[in-house]
Structures are given as C-alpha cells and as structure tokens.
Amino acid sequence: KIEEIGLPLVTMYIGKARIEVMKEEFLRTSRILGREDKAKALVDYWDAKLGLVRGRVGTIPPEKRLRVYYADTDILHTEGGAWWTQDLLSFAGAVNVAEDIGQARETTMEKLLEWDPEVIVVSRTMGQADKVAGILKDPQLRDLKAVRSGRVYEFPIGAFWWNRPSPEAPLGFLWLAKTLYPELMADIDMKKETVDFFKTFYGYELSDAEYESFITGSTP
After folding, report:
1. What is the pTM of this model?
2. Domain ranges in the chain?
3. What are phi and psi for residue 164, nearest 5 degrees?
4. What is the CATH number of domain 3-216?
5. Which terminus of the chain faces fewer neighbouring Cβ atoms within 10 Å, N or C?
6. Which of 12-26, 91-105, 160-174, 182-196 has the lowest mean pLDDT?
7. How distant, in Å, are the alpha carbons of 13, 52, 157, 194, 195 from that of 206?
8. pLDDT-derived band of residue 120, with 50, 70 and 90 as boundaries?
C-alpha cells in the first residue's frame, strides 16, 4: 500500500537480526540519511570490539566454555539458536543451553532443571522487581549450578538494552565476556568503554551516576 502511493519503502530486521545483518542495516540506513561516514565508524567499532572479545575467549577449549541460560521477561522465557541471543552468548565464549529449541522462546521448568546451567543471565525488565534476587530465592531453582554458585547476573541497560540488537550491542558483548571470564577480560574497563561509546557515537558526556544506573538499574 505504501509503495502504491509512491513512497519509498525499506524493510528492516532489527529485533530478529544477527550480527552481520545489523551491520548491513546500519550502512543501509546511513545511505538513506546521507551519513555513510557515521555508519562506517560504527561498523568499524563493532568489528574491533567483537574481534577483541573473540580473541580473548577463543582460547577457551569447547569443553571448558560455560553453559549459560538466558532468561528474558521471566525465567521460562528464553531464546533458542535462531535468535540474537545465540550470537551474544557464543561470541562471549558461552554455550547457549537452549540452542536446540531453535525458533522457540519458551521452555519448561523440567527442561531448565535438566539443562542445569552454570550461569544464568537475565534481561532487565522495566518496572519489575529485582529478577536476580527472585531467581536466587526460588525454591524450584535452588539445585541449579548457577543458583548454588550465585552466578546469576542481570544485563545492563544503556540508551537501549545491551542484550538486544542495537548500536550499543558491543558493550553487551564486552560486559558478558567480562562477567563470564573476568580473568580473560581483566584489563577491560567497562565504564571507560561506555563513556567513550556515548561520546563518540551519541555526542553525549555520560556522568558517573548515569553509568551506575546502567549497571545497577538505579535512578541517576
């Protein structure tokens, strides 16, 4: 209908995108807006940061990679291998325990207990109480390796969720790799990385309080 009235139409993947698709969409959007220079700088940034992460975690043998479960809006809402989370976890050196459910985004308590992940990472939900505390206190989950070891973490949110496809996604890759394998990423200063990103790509000077709000969910 839009094309019929003479308006140009461009289809974007965004939420279902994979890494290479996202980079291409940055470039495509920049051509439409006449800002190819900005998009090229962003794509170069993605390549540099993802290359850094890959170089560090690439030394981990397959059998030593942490088995990780991603929880989205609730503990049984996850993502199989067909979604963005697959790229996020695998690039950060983790094994997505839910990979085999493919296009699905839901699982069962029985399956989660069977997977018994070593780490659980959760998406922060606006207006929802501390999800990490809820998972750690849930009697149904108490026997999971991740819960017993206290390895349950909540993704930060900057201008957008760091666990979702957006220009800020490399910060999520860096944060996750550092969270999972701190010894391999000891020299990575997440505050500096975040401040530099916001200044370079958003033209914004991020305050200390704003950065802390990204990480903790507090009000700056």
Report:
1. 0.89
2. 3-216
3. -120, 160
4. 3.40.50.1980
5. N
6. 12-26
7. 29, 23, 14, 8, 6
8. very high
